[in-house]
Specification:
The strands form five sheets. Strands 11-8-13-12 form a four-stranded mixed sheet, sandwiched between helices. It has a three-stranded antiparallel sheet with strand order 5-6-7, with no helix packed on it. The protein folds into two domains: 39 residues, no CATH class; 132 residues, Alpha-Beta Complex (Nucleoside Triphosphate Pyrophosphohydrolase). A hairpin with a 4-residue loop joins β9 and β10. It is 22% helix and 37% strand. By secondary structure, it is an alpha+beta fold.
């Protein structure tokens, strides 16, 4: 008994063990409802967090990370770098290093004989010559199709009368905002290439069998090109 009443009279404070059994059942139902709300459909809880099963929703508000602070640490010509402090679903905080990119396009140009126009260029970041499809970065305010037309002509000299949008991909969503829109270009007309001053490219038409062989042998390793070529082959009925 604890003196808490008028004049110091003792009063009883109900302990947890003395609570009505119904209140325990109600609390248990509330806790169960909260757990169900926190657990994404198709997922189960593990020691380190929530694991989604195959077929579960790709996004869920419960899994979102909330930005708390943002610091720009570098501004460049084609990309910026920032460091964000975020609140995790668990309530803890973490740092996210983000490359800001205004987006890009990549094109699968199809010649009249069915071959695909690719380019070879030196990629300084990996220190090697890379075999790729034509691609480039969006200018500020530029629409993807306009960029695709410009990049195709600049890098290969070809102009296309028929354009088909395949879709868009995130090449590295773990740390970059870049989105690449993919196109098929057909009914090509050749012309002079006009690469940028810092680009040295060679144009190489390849058959589909040569492309798959180059991928298998590791001579074509550019991820956006592999995705776009596979997508285009499926769209064209399998090549």
């Amino acid at each position: 008994m604890i003196p808490c009443g008028p004049g110091g009279l003792p009063c009883l404070r109900k302990s947890r063990s003395s609570r009505d059994p119904l209140s325990f059942r109600e609390e248990g139902r509330r806790e169960e409802a909260i757990e169900q709300r926190l657990r994404p459909p198709g997922g189960h809880e593990t020691a380190s967090g929530i694991l989604l099963e195959v077929g579960a929703l790709a996004s869920d508000p419960i899994m979102e990370e909330i930005p708390l602070e943002r610091q720009r640490v570098y501004e460049g010509r084609i990309l910026n770098l920032r460091v964000d402090t975020v609140r995790l679903p668990s309530g803890r905080t973490a740092l996210r290093e983000i490359v800001e990119h205004r987006g890009a396009v990549a094109i699968v140009p199809i010649l009249a004989d069915g071959r695909v126009v690719l380019v070879r260029q030196f990629r300084y970041a990996v220190g090697q010559v890379s075999l790729e499809i034509p691609a480039g970065t969006l200018e500020p305010g530029e629409e993807p199709l306009a960029c695709a037309r410009r990049e195709l002509e600049e890098e290969t000299g070809y102009q296309a009368a028929r354009w088909e949008r395949l879709g868009a991909i995130w090449p590295t969503p773990g740390y970059s905002t870049e989105e690449i829109t993919l196109f098929i270009a057909r009914d090509l007309t050749p012309g002079p290439a006009r690469p940028e001053f810092d680009e040295a490219l060679s144009v190489i038409p390849m058959s589909w069998s040569e492309i798959w062989e180059a991928i298998e042998e590791g001579r074509l390793r550019d991820a956006k090109s592999i995705v776009a070529l596979a997508w285009a082959a499926r769209r064209l009925g399998g090549r």
